[in-house]
Amino acid sequence: MALFDLPLERLRDYRPDRDEPADFDGFWKDTLAEASSHPLEPSFTPYDAALSTVEVFDTTFAGWGGHPIHAWLVAPQGTTAAPCVVQYIGYGGGRDLPLDHLVWPAAGFATLVVDTRGQGAQHHNSSGSTGDPHGGPHMQAPGVMTRGILDPEHYYYRRVFTDAVRAVDVAAAHPAVDADRIVVAGVSQGGGIAQAVAALQPKVAAALIDVPFLTHFRRAVEITDRDPYQEIVRFLSTQRDSAEQVFRTLSYFDGLNFAARGEVPALYSVALMDWICPPSTVYAAYNLWAGRKDITVWPWNGHEGGGSRQRDIQLRYLRDLFAG
Fold first, then answer.
1. Of 84, 183, 206, 244, which sits with the fewest C-beta atoms within 10 Å of its C-beta?
2. Alpha-carbon separation of residue 92 from 117, 139, 142 (angstroms)
3. Taking the mean position of all CA atoms in its chain, how far away is CA 277?
């Protein structure tokens, strides 16, 4: 690893022009309205996780298209109306097991850990259980970055972001959760999803956005040769005449456009040696975030960012936020 992006003093002021389609807000309004035509139908089935201080529920709800989405709800034993962290997962990962999600319950929070449709089979230590029955009519490179990329209506992340917005409604529906204190959180892909949901879902009270993926697509594909952004490059290297359409589609899903609409308090983190989600892409979103914001900088780390140190900062951040 090495410093490869803009120096920190330039990152702090980096505000690129946004490529925002004129119908961005209408696209998402129509998308979420279409999704709302399907009953949410949250199901919370008690799950024996062999854990004595928390309650665990194997959770299912109707996401985009009414498709079943799986999640874990883990809450302190016997709690009611607790704050809740809705967690979204990094690229290729899954919700895995309840025992992997005990930090927030130990701090008195409930947590809803949401599977990402069509993922969960790429990491040896993280499995998922939610498929993606709607793949769109177009070809794709390996992975999901180019699934349906020639049309925003069919693009994979339209379904993922919609699932994620509805997951907040699921958390709010459970008696263990205080619907006025719901936080969205994630690392990498999860951070990009949280960033979008915080702008789209009015029930969100705050956002924890770590080294977010799905942000400032054009710059990312031009300065890093790492996956998952390279999936887009490989697609364009063979579909040579599709660049204009590809970047038009991506403009509906770019974290920069969501950040400009983010009004809730947000805590970001960035790693200055991150070749997967380059620091300029993170700072671009952070600098555009419209609401109250803070950022933690990890100057000597790659995509792992602050790890448990960042989680420690988040615990204190939310404690102080909700104490006020």
1. 244
2. 10, 19, 12
3. 13
2, part of any domain: no
pLDDT tens over the chain, length 324 residues: 689 999 999 999 999 999 999 999 999 999 999 999 999 999 999 999 999 999 999 999 999 999 999 999 999 999 999 999 999 999 999 999 999 999 999 999 999 999 999 998 665 555 666 767 776 555 555 689 999 999 999 999 999 999 999 999 999 999 999 999 999 999 999 999 999 999 999 999 999 999 999 999 999 999 999 999 999 999 999 999 999 999 999 999 999 999 999 999 999 999 999 999 999 999 999 999 999 999 999 999 999 999 999 999 999 999 999 996
Q: Which residue do the tokens 């499995």 mark?
A: 127
Domain-embedded: residue 280: yes
CATH number for 74:
3.40.50.1820
**Domain assignment of residue 49, given as a range:** 8-323
- Enter the pTM of the model: 0.96
Q: What residues pair up with 75 in beta bridges, in sequence order?
A: 55
| Positions marked catalytic | 188, 274, 303
